[in-house]
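cron nightly-structures :: item 1 of 1
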Amino acid sequence: MSNIRVAVAMSGGVDSSLTTLLLKEQGYDVFGITMLLSDDRRDNAMEGDIPKYIADAQKVAEGLGIEHHVLDLREKFKECIVDCFVNEYAQGRTPNPCVICNRQIKFAEIWNLAKSLGADYMATGHYARVMKDENSQRYVVKKGVDNHKDQSYALYRLPQEILSHVLLPLGEICKTETRALAEKYGLIVADKPESQEICFVPDDDYKALIRKLSPEVLKKGDIVDIKGKVLGRHDGIALYTIGQRKGMGIAAPEPLYVVKLDSQKNQVVVGGAKDVFSNGLIADQVNWVALDDVKEPFTATVKVRYGNRENQATITPLENGTVQVDFMEPVRAVTPGQSAVFYNEDTVLGGGIILHSI
């Protein structure tokens, strides 16, 4: 198997490091690629002149006796991910940058470099599985066996041409086993803490990031109820998200929740607990994974945010790559900018970006 060459996206954490080790143990000709996304000392822990996560990846690669490459994606990452992240919030949407990054940056750019270096496959430390469906002859994404860590939701936008070259060895094990194996093999990152939720948001404080990068988008406006009555003032719709309860500074006889962000009127619309629920949604930019050329309505379970449970729904294809999702029971906090991902048991059928609830 040594003639099969695999590039591993090494982030310097325990997941990608164990992925590298496992593939090497299985006899693959493995090498590592680490993305340089920012070298800003305010955003990264540094080790000498390089970010610590890159230094850690290099140390793991050296310990395993494999080659390691650094892929400079600072300019593209800022343009495609960071700037778009801020702009989405400014438009009253709540983005999932990991979903976009996986498609446009992580898998696309690493695979491009990997191919130029002679790779047959690329691998990551995601807790999900990629398999070929012999009936449809399509490559499909399936949930990882660890239900608590499953990351299939974040991979639904990957196209067939990339999925056909992806290996995800951690999809078959649980996170606790990852830690145990890393310790058993003596990886230097075995006890390294989990990375923050969004890699470019220090301390997971997206509001502070927006204030730092684009304070001009934070325009004060009205907080209104669902009938349009002014209840208070906000400091910028980018600082709010659907379903939010705290931090509005409004006294009311019952709890109030954000139910809509109106970028046209620069208003935060609030309502009672029942107003946060939706009967359905419209999504665009749909990517079909296990299905091809969908024309008719079908039933599936739908996840509207990473970490949320799935909900039974009917998905109806519309025009121009959009779909309508009608839930069997109302769903809380359907949020524009997040992804609606469709499942048949453990298989990702496809998904799209939520435009609005219905």
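cron nightly-structures :: done
The chain has three domains: 5-203, 218-271, 276-357.
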